[in-house]
Fold each of these.
Amino acid sequence: MTLLGGVLSVKGMAFLMFSILIVTALGYMLGRITIKGVSLGTAGVFIVALLYGALFYEDLAAVLKTPELTSQSLKVVEQLGLIFFVTAVGFIAGPKFFKNLKKNFKSYILLGLIIILSGGLVTVGCYYFGTATGLGMGDLESKAEFMAMLDGLLSGALTTTPGFSAAKEAAPEFEAAITVGHGIAYLFGVVGVVLFVQLIPKIMKADMDAERAKLVDADTAEVKEYTGKLINIDDMGLGAFALAAILGVLLGSIKIPLTSAGFGGTCFSLGTTGGTLIMSLIFGHFSHIGPINVMPPKPTLQVLRELGLMLFLIGAGVAGGADFVKYFEPIYFVYGAIMTTVPMIIGFLFAKYVLKLSLLNNLGSITGGMTSTPALGTLIGVAKTEEVASAYAATYPISLLAIVLVSQFLMIIWG
């Protein structure tokens, strides 16, 4: 990019960094805007990233020489952000996670399954409605391709990469439709849950001090302190953080075959998100290995959590914005919005009236059940406590496995 008559020139990877900084600044400004106490927060970064991708993706690709390099670079930004955010969340939740899980284990399993299964049922409902009315069939060649589009919408509505991958593996011939559907629904999938966790406490006129007290009381756990003088890998805790992330990525790469085709067929894995989350929870729970401290300081974790969320939203948003306008149809957005909203409402009501979870435990579980990383970041800000991460971390793995199975089931039965 050349400005001021050639005096200022930004080229190559420097332009990518320049783009990230522009999106960051404008995104946080947008997220700061508050209407009746509700704001986008960090999700404002995602909105600006989508717009930036729609308007300037071709310019970015031209500067970086090839579309392939541009796509790969944005994927690196997205994945690095994901690792930072999820690992930080795991460390923060770790000290009290296992006690909370033991106490509410059945509730988390039920809630995760309820949310994902209701999402699957909504998808089937959209399929029969669309095939009966023709709404959404458009230029699609078959009902099978329409279900592939809807399956992509479901993975986008739940902002889940494993579900997205599972759908593509189940129907590789319809990968384009699945990819478009995922990208269209991803926008509301992010923003919808972010707004939900802000609006519900206001609608219920919740006393947040009282709700925080309930959450802390429920999660209170005794953390055994090491009596010697602990040895830090480094003062900032970055070494311990990196170690947990490395082991988490390795754990997430382990594949478990789900079909008779073995490793050549559909496989389940925790992925980067699940692997780093579980490993950092373990590190956070034990906090030290003998005399070696493996628990980073809280300020370090808070910075890495916000930095990671920001990078993740930029990487996903700019890439998604590139094709958003090209493939967008209003009815697809409507289907995606329904797939996001209905499971959230059903899950919230089930957790409130059947499972009797406190408000913040309920909302934390909803963010995990919806596999919504951005919404967790928002909820932490709304609740003004990071204790809500425990409920997210407990529900997330259940939903992760369920959405993989549901995505494949939809294509096998209706595709």
Amino acid sequence: MVSRVIPVEPFDLVIFGGTGDLARRKILPGLYRRFVAGQMPKEARIIGAARSDLDTAGYRKMIHEAIHEFIAEKDRDETLVQEFCKGLEYVTIDAMGEGGWKEMAALIRQDVIGAFYFSVAPSLFGALAERLHLHGISNDTSRIVVEKPFGRDLETARELNAVLAEHFEESQIYRIDHYLGKETVQNLMAVRFANVLFEPLWNAQYIDHIQITAAETVGVGGRGGYYDKSGAMRDMVQNHLMQLLCLTAMEPPSKFEPNAVRDEKLKVIRSLEPVEPHHIVRGQYDAHEGEPSYREDAGDLKSRTDSFVAMKCHVANWRWAGVPFYLRTGKKLADRASEIVVVFKEPPHHVFDADGKVHRNVLSIKLQPNEGMNLSVTIKEPGPGGMRLMDVPLDMSFAETLGDNADAVPEAYERLIMDVIRGNQTLFMRGDEVEAAWSWVDPIIQGWEARNDVPKTYDVGSQGPTDAETMMRRDGREWMDIKA
């Protein structure tokens, strides 16, 4: 299998926050991989911009070191690393003042695609957008990329959208969610809409329930100050899990183009029913075997912020009437694993004696760390002694299926940045989508605050609070184990 790489047009990409952790760990190593793959033209330029008092030579040295740190030796070619770094520029910039903007304006070409990545705090978005416009750096073909959080509630999301809209059209704004750049997430759409095997069964008649999990083994660490003002609901459910739910539940778009896809996702969000308090479990990891508690990590021994959320929700339309969607995310859990699990109903009539065992087809779409899909099917257990049934997996992992080409599959940030350059907004959130998500989430959070709700504790390395298991058992169901 040969990977087909299509080069993009020449471009200038400015990374505001170009010395930050995200730029060093994900954005620039990802761009290096695209450079090696032949997708970046020689005329492309990448410009780092930050407060740090660096020159271009110092920035090139920093990124050279970052590539060595975050890209495995087998995937590095020193000659190509040096060639890539020669294309980097740097400008010391004052986001809230005038320092560095004339130098920036002198670097940016008006006859190529201009993209501006706001890898900074949302409080700086408005100032950056204003100065790009004021100094004539941006034009009608420019694109801006903004990182989450997209507000912390509906009001602040509307304010943020309004600030960006003062200087850029919606078609120029790319709200990035790296989960949507994962190969398996996009394969979810291919599995649904390109295979007659699945789409006729993708409804309440055949599906019992759906589980969406995003589990982490890390705690809040050095992000305690930020995270304690956010929590799992704002940090993960409102964006990442909401997007996965939309792609799983949406109707087939008329065609695979940005607004058609995003229109269908918006319909899902607007169809979500309010969540009852007894259908939500909040958790907070506790000290365990020498590991600090969430409250210790956050520096607030009375904190009521959630590091874990599990909930049951419903999409109120004909396709999904009566089918529960169970969402779950948390930190310091048993394993790092993100997946979508589609559990189909039992056959309407049991022909075979199954010894009381329940046999169901289960489609597991694994997002990380081992991307792939697994379909559980029921077969006869080999050997004599009657018709005994067993469940076996039809397994497809990218690493095994693609073989030597598995390493060529772009990581999420690589794909999404190239989509920005191409002007393809399919995998990016629209402003009305963000606001609709907050409209659903806000009442849930306000309910917690009104009830003075306290998160349930759970051990580090566990499956989460036992209340989450109880919530499922009330419905006669069980969570899939959290394991990679």
